[in-house]
Amino acid sequence: MLLGFSSKNYKAFDERVSLDLAPITLLFGKNHAGKSALLRLLPFLADSFHARARSPLNFDAAPLRGAGFSDILCNQSSSQTLELELRCQEGQSRIQYRELEGAVQATRISLLSQGHTFEVDWIHPGCYQDREEQVFRLQFQGPVPSQDGLPEPFQAMARSLHQLPRDVLWLEASREPLAREIRAPHSTPWEIGSRGERAIAFCSQSSRVTERVSGWYRQEFGLDFEIRRTAAFIRPVLTHPKTTRATPLSDSGEGFSQVLPVVTAWAMAHEEVGPKILCLEHPELHLHPDAHPSLARLFLQPPNRDVRLLVETHSENLLL
What we know:
CATH topology of the largest domain: Rossmann fold
Radius of gyration: 22 Å
Largest sheet: 8 strands, antiparallel
Structural class: alpha+beta
Shape: elongated
CATH architecture of the largest domain: 3-Layer(aba) Sandwich
Strand order of the largest sheet: 2-1-4-5-6-7-8-9
Number of helices: 10
Number of domains: 2
Mean pLDDT: 93
Order of helices and strands: EEEHHEEEEEEHHEEHHEEEHHEHEH
Number of strands: 16
Distance between the termini: 28 Å
Oligomer: single chain
Protein backbone atom coordinates (compact mmCIF):
# COMPACT_ATOMS: atom_id res chain seq x y z
CA MET A 1 0.00 0.00 0.00
CA LEU A 2 1.39 3.38 -1.00
CA LEU A 3 1.85 5.71 1.98
CA GLY A 4 3.00 8.85 0.19
CA PHE A 5 5.03 10.36 -2.62
CA SER A 6 7.20 13.39 -3.32
CA SER A 7 8.78 15.19 -6.25
CA LYS A 8 11.48 17.76 -6.88
CA ASN A 9 11.85 19.97 -9.96
CA TYR A 10 8.41 18.91 -11.17
CA LYS A 11 6.01 21.33 -12.87
CA ALA A 12 5.38 24.31 -10.52
CA PHE A 13 7.61 22.91 -7.76
CA ASP A 14 11.34 23.55 -7.97
CA GLU A 15 11.88 22.40 -4.37
CA ARG A 16 10.80 19.09 -2.93
CA VAL A 17 7.07 18.78 -2.29
CA SER A 18 5.83 15.78 -0.36
CA LEU A 19 2.37 14.31 0.27
CA ASP A 20 1.45 11.70 2.85
CA LEU A 21 -1.69 9.83 1.81
CA ALA A 22 -4.06 10.25 4.73
CA PRO A 23 -7.56 8.74 4.59
CA ILE A 24 -8.57 12.08 3.03
CA THR A 25 -6.06 14.53 1.52
CA LEU A 26 -7.47 17.76 0.07
CA LEU A 27 -5.63 20.02 -2.38
CA PHE A 28 -7.15 23.48 -2.17
CA GLY A 29 -5.87 26.71 -3.70
CA LYS A 30 -5.96 29.22 -6.53
CA ASN A 31 -5.79 28.39 -10.22
CA HIS A 32 -2.33 27.76 -11.65
CA ALA A 33 -0.95 26.86 -8.21
CA GLY A 34 0.00 23.26 -9.13
CA LYS A 35 -2.90 21.31 -7.58
CA SER A 36 -3.78 19.38 -10.73
CA ALA A 37 -0.13 18.67 -11.54
CA LEU A 38 0.47 17.27 -8.09
CA LEU A 39 -2.66 15.10 -8.12
CA ARG A 40 -1.97 13.80 -11.65
CA LEU A 41 1.57 12.80 -10.72
CA LEU A 42 0.19 9.73 -8.95
CA PRO A 43 -1.88 8.32 -11.87
CA PHE A 44 1.02 9.20 -14.20
CA LEU A 45 3.38 7.09 -12.10
CA ALA A 46 0.81 4.31 -11.79
CA ASP A 47 0.36 4.26 -15.57
CA SER A 48 4.13 4.07 -16.01
CA PHE A 49 4.15 0.59 -14.45
CA HIS A 50 2.13 -0.84 -17.34
CA ALA A 51 3.92 -3.08 -19.81
CA ARG A 52 3.15 -0.68 -22.68
CA ALA A 53 5.47 1.98 -21.18
CA ARG A 54 8.61 2.40 -23.27
CA SER A 55 10.79 3.93 -20.54
CA PRO A 56 10.72 4.18 -16.73
CA LEU A 57 8.22 7.03 -17.15
CA ASN A 58 5.32 6.61 -19.56
CA PHE A 59 4.89 9.85 -21.48
CA ASP A 60 1.90 8.41 -23.31
CA ALA A 61 -0.02 8.41 -20.01
CA ALA A 62 -3.30 10.34 -20.22
CA PRO A 63 -2.65 12.53 -17.13
CA LEU A 64 0.31 14.18 -18.94
CA ARG A 65 -1.84 15.29 -21.89
CA GLY A 66 0.99 14.93 -24.37
CA ALA A 67 3.76 16.47 -22.26
CA GLY A 68 7.33 15.26 -22.69
CA PHE A 69 10.15 15.08 -20.18
CA SER A 70 11.26 18.71 -20.62
CA ASP A 71 7.63 19.83 -20.25
CA ILE A 72 7.24 18.37 -16.76
CA LEU A 73 10.45 19.92 -15.42
CA CYS A 74 10.01 23.12 -13.41
CA ASN A 75 10.55 26.09 -15.73
CA GLN A 76 11.83 28.16 -12.81
CA SER A 77 14.87 25.90 -12.44
CA SER A 78 17.85 25.26 -14.69
CA SER A 79 18.19 21.69 -13.45
CA GLN A 80 17.54 18.93 -15.98
CA THR A 81 16.98 16.32 -13.27
CA LEU A 82 13.59 15.14 -12.03
CA GLU A 83 13.49 13.45 -8.63
CA LEU A 84 10.58 11.25 -7.56
CA GLU A 85 10.00 9.35 -4.35
CA LEU A 86 7.45 6.64 -3.53
CA ARG A 87 6.87 5.45 0.04
CA CYS A 88 5.15 2.20 0.97
CA GLN A 89 4.97 0.00 4.04
CA GLU A 90 7.98 -2.01 2.86
CA GLY A 91 10.27 0.99 2.34
CA GLN A 92 10.90 3.93 0.04
CA SER A 93 12.32 4.56 -3.40
CA ARG A 94 13.93 7.86 -4.39
CA ILE A 95 15.07 8.02 -8.01
CA GLN A 96 16.51 10.77 -10.20
CA TYR A 97 15.75 10.85 -13.92
CA ARG A 98 17.45 12.62 -16.81
CA GLU A 99 17.18 12.54 -20.58
CA LEU A 100 20.31 10.77 -21.86
CA GLU A 101 21.13 9.21 -25.20
CA GLY A 102 17.71 10.19 -26.51
CA ALA A 103 15.76 8.47 -23.75
CA VAL A 104 14.70 9.09 -20.15
CA GLN A 105 17.02 7.18 -17.82
CA ALA A 106 16.96 6.59 -14.08
CA THR A 107 20.38 8.04 -13.30
CA ARG A 108 20.51 7.61 -9.52
CA ILE A 109 18.61 5.05 -7.45
CA SER A 110 18.31 5.29 -3.67
CA LEU A 111 16.28 2.61 -1.89
CA LEU A 112 15.58 2.18 1.82
CA SER A 113 14.01 -0.97 3.28
CA GLN A 114 14.22 -2.92 6.52
CA GLY A 115 17.04 -0.69 7.74
CA HIS A 116 19.10 -1.36 4.60
CA THR A 117 20.11 1.19 1.98
CA PHE A 118 20.91 0.68 -1.69
CA GLU A 119 22.43 3.53 -3.73
CA VAL A 120 23.68 3.16 -7.28
CA ASP A 121 24.43 5.45 -10.23
CA TRP A 122 23.77 4.94 -13.92
CA ILE A 123 26.70 3.78 -16.07
CA HIS A 124 24.86 2.91 -19.27
CA PRO A 125 21.39 1.55 -20.02
CA GLY A 126 20.57 -1.29 -17.63
CA CYS A 127 23.84 -1.07 -15.67
CA TYR A 128 24.41 0.68 -12.34
CA GLN A 129 27.34 0.93 -9.96
CA ASP A 130 27.56 1.52 -6.20
CA ARG A 131 30.31 3.31 -4.27
CA GLU A 132 32.32 0.09 -4.01
CA GLU A 133 32.19 -0.13 -7.83
CA GLN A 134 30.02 -3.24 -7.75
CA VAL A 135 27.93 -3.39 -10.89
CA PHE A 136 24.20 -4.25 -10.87
CA ARG A 137 22.07 -5.04 -13.88
CA LEU A 138 18.62 -3.59 -13.24
CA GLN A 139 15.52 -3.73 -15.38
CA PHE A 140 12.73 -1.17 -15.28
CA GLN A 141 9.08 -1.75 -15.94
CA GLY A 142 7.92 1.47 -14.39
CA PRO A 143 9.47 4.22 -12.25
CA VAL A 144 11.29 1.78 -9.94
CA PRO A 145 13.42 -1.27 -10.78
CA SER A 146 11.77 -4.67 -10.93
CA GLN A 147 12.83 -7.08 -8.21
CA ASP A 148 15.15 -9.00 -10.53
CA GLY A 149 18.70 -7.84 -9.91
CA LEU A 150 17.92 -6.07 -6.62
CA PRO A 151 19.44 -7.31 -3.35
CA GLU A 152 16.98 -9.44 -1.37
CA PRO A 153 16.04 -6.81 1.29
CA PHE A 154 14.56 -4.56 -1.44
CA GLN A 155 12.60 -7.10 -3.46
CA ALA A 156 9.42 -6.96 -1.35
CA MET A 157 9.34 -3.17 -1.69
CA ALA A 158 9.75 -3.43 -5.47
CA ARG A 159 6.90 -5.96 -5.67
CA SER A 160 4.67 -3.72 -3.55
CA LEU A 161 5.28 -0.62 -5.66
CA HIS A 162 4.63 -2.53 -8.86
CA GLN A 163 1.05 -3.03 -7.62
CA LEU A 164 0.38 0.70 -7.98
CA PRO A 165 -1.63 0.46 -11.25
CA ARG A 166 -4.08 -1.86 -9.50
CA ASP A 167 -4.43 0.50 -6.53
CA VAL A 168 -4.91 3.90 -8.22
CA LEU A 169 -8.04 5.31 -9.87
CA TRP A 170 -8.02 8.77 -11.47
CA LEU A 171 -11.17 10.75 -12.26
CA GLU A 172 -10.45 13.92 -14.17
CA ALA A 173 -12.56 17.03 -13.82
CA SER A 174 -13.91 16.85 -17.39
CA ARG A 175 -16.14 13.81 -17.02
CA GLU A 176 -18.08 12.08 -19.78
CA PRO A 177 -21.61 13.43 -20.38
CA LEU A 178 -24.06 10.79 -19.23
CA ALA A 179 -25.89 8.90 -21.96
CA ARG A 180 -29.61 8.34 -21.60
CA GLU A 181 -29.01 4.62 -22.07
CA ILE A 182 -26.19 2.37 -23.16
CA ARG A 183 -25.93 -1.09 -24.65
CA ALA A 184 -25.88 -3.69 -21.91
CA PRO A 185 -22.31 -4.95 -21.32
CA HIS A 186 -21.53 -8.65 -21.58
CA SER A 187 -18.99 -8.51 -18.73
CA THR A 188 -17.91 -6.25 -15.87
CA PRO A 189 -15.45 -3.51 -16.91
CA TRP A 190 -12.18 -3.75 -15.01
CA GLU A 191 -12.32 0.00 -14.28
CA ILE A 192 -14.65 2.94 -14.90
CA GLY A 193 -12.29 5.13 -16.94
CA SER A 194 -10.69 8.48 -16.15
CA ARG A 195 -13.84 10.30 -17.34
CA GLY A 196 -16.23 7.89 -15.64
CA GLU A 197 -17.40 6.64 -19.03
CA ARG A 198 -17.87 3.07 -17.80
CA ALA A 199 -19.52 3.85 -14.45
CA ILE A 200 -23.01 2.86 -15.63
CA ALA A 201 -21.71 -0.38 -17.16
CA PHE A 202 -19.96 -1.26 -13.91
CA CYS A 203 -23.04 -0.54 -11.80
CA SER A 204 -25.14 -2.75 -14.08
CA GLN A 205 -22.84 -5.68 -13.29
CA SER A 206 -22.50 -5.15 -9.52
CA SER A 207 -25.59 -5.08 -7.31
CA ARG A 208 -23.45 -4.26 -4.25
CA VAL A 209 -21.98 -1.17 -5.87
CA THR A 210 -25.39 -0.09 -7.17
CA GLU A 211 -26.92 -0.42 -3.69
CA ARG A 212 -24.15 1.73 -2.15
CA VAL A 213 -24.62 4.36 -4.85
CA SER A 214 -28.38 4.29 -4.35
CA GLY A 215 -27.93 4.57 -0.59
CA TRP A 216 -26.08 7.88 -1.04
CA TYR A 217 -28.72 9.38 -3.36
CA ARG A 218 -31.41 8.18 -0.97
CA GLN A 219 -29.77 9.54 2.18
CA GLU A 220 -28.82 12.91 0.73
CA PHE A 221 -31.64 13.64 -1.76
CA GLY A 222 -34.47 11.21 -0.96
CA LEU A 223 -34.14 9.41 -4.30
CA ASP A 224 -33.23 5.87 -5.29
CA PHE A 225 -30.74 5.06 -8.02
CA GLU A 226 -31.61 2.09 -10.24
CA ILE A 227 -30.47 0.42 -13.43
CA ARG A 228 -33.49 -0.36 -15.62
CA ARG A 229 -32.95 -3.06 -18.26
CA THR A 230 -34.42 -3.94 -21.64
CA ALA A 231 -33.32 -6.75 -23.91
CA ALA A 232 -30.23 -4.99 -25.18
CA PHE A 233 -29.92 -1.71 -23.25
CA ILE A 234 -29.60 -0.40 -19.72
CA ARG A 235 -30.82 2.97 -18.45
CA PRO A 236 -29.80 4.66 -15.17
CA VAL A 237 -32.77 6.28 -13.45
CA LEU A 238 -33.69 8.03 -10.23
CA THR A 239 -36.95 7.09 -8.52
CA HIS A 240 -38.86 8.47 -5.55
CA PRO A 241 -39.39 5.79 -2.88
CA LYS A 242 -43.10 6.65 -2.59
CA THR A 243 -43.88 6.54 -6.31
CA THR A 244 -43.15 4.29 -9.28
CA ARG A 245 -42.16 7.14 -11.56
CA ALA A 246 -38.61 6.93 -12.88
CA THR A 247 -36.63 9.86 -14.27
CA PRO A 248 -33.59 9.09 -16.46
CA LEU A 249 -30.49 10.23 -14.66
CA SER A 250 -29.49 12.16 -17.77
CA ASP A 251 -32.66 14.25 -17.32
CA SER A 252 -32.09 14.88 -13.61
CA GLY A 253 -29.62 17.74 -13.96
CA GLU A 254 -25.92 17.86 -14.71
CA GLY A 255 -24.93 17.79 -11.05
CA PHE A 256 -26.67 14.48 -10.30
CA SER A 257 -25.25 12.81 -13.41
CA GLN A 258 -21.71 14.21 -13.18
CA VAL A 259 -21.30 13.10 -9.57
CA LEU A 260 -22.24 9.50 -10.39
CA PRO A 261 -18.67 8.37 -11.36
CA VAL A 262 -17.37 9.85 -8.10
CA VAL A 263 -19.89 7.97 -5.97
CA THR A 264 -19.36 4.81 -8.04
CA ALA A 265 -15.57 4.94 -7.54
CA TRP A 266 -16.10 5.39 -3.81
CA ALA A 267 -18.56 2.46 -3.72
CA MET A 268 -16.16 0.23 -5.68
CA ALA A 269 -13.36 0.97 -3.23
CA HIS A 270 -15.54 0.26 -0.22
CA GLU A 271 -16.88 -2.97 -1.72
CA GLU A 272 -13.30 -4.06 -2.49
CA VAL A 273 -13.99 -4.43 -6.21
CA GLY A 274 -11.96 -1.42 -7.33
CA PRO A 275 -8.85 0.62 -6.61
CA LYS A 276 -8.36 1.87 -3.06
CA ILE A 277 -6.47 5.10 -3.85
CA LEU A 278 -8.90 7.54 -5.49
CA CYS A 279 -7.49 10.65 -7.18
CA LEU A 280 -10.49 12.91 -7.72
CA GLU A 281 -10.41 16.24 -9.56
CA HIS A 282 -13.19 18.59 -8.48
CA PRO A 283 -15.71 15.92 -7.45
CA GLU A 284 -18.20 18.68 -6.60
CA LEU A 285 -18.32 19.91 -10.21
CA HIS A 286 -21.86 20.99 -11.27
CA LEU A 287 -23.32 20.35 -7.81
CA HIS A 288 -25.00 23.26 -6.05
CA PRO A 289 -22.82 24.54 -3.17
CA ASP A 290 -25.47 23.41 -0.71
CA ALA A 291 -24.90 19.83 -1.91
CA HIS A 292 -21.13 19.89 -1.38
CA PRO A 293 -21.47 18.74 2.25
CA SER A 294 -23.26 15.66 0.89
CA LEU A 295 -20.00 14.67 -0.78
CA ALA A 296 -18.08 15.41 2.39
CA ARG A 297 -20.36 13.07 4.35
CA LEU A 298 -19.80 10.39 1.72
CA PHE A 299 -16.02 10.73 1.96
CA LEU A 300 -16.13 10.60 5.76
CA GLN A 301 -18.00 7.29 5.92
CA PRO A 302 -15.69 4.65 7.43
CA PRO A 303 -14.45 2.26 4.73
CA ASN A 304 -14.40 -1.53 4.75
CA ARG A 305 -10.68 -1.40 3.99
CA ASP A 306 -7.72 0.94 3.80
CA VAL A 307 -9.09 3.51 1.30
CA ARG A 308 -7.24 6.74 0.52
CA LEU A 309 -8.78 9.83 -1.13
CA LEU A 310 -6.67 12.49 -2.85
CA VAL A 311 -9.06 15.30 -3.78
CA GLU A 312 -8.51 18.54 -5.68
CA THR A 313 -11.22 21.09 -4.98
CA HIS A 314 -12.16 24.77 -5.09
CA SER A 315 -15.08 24.22 -2.75
CA GLU A 316 -14.86 25.87 0.65
CA ASN A 317 -18.08 24.06 1.56
CA LEU A 318 -16.39 20.73 0.94
CA LEU A 319 -13.52 21.80 3.18
CA LEU A 320 -15.89 22.77 5.99
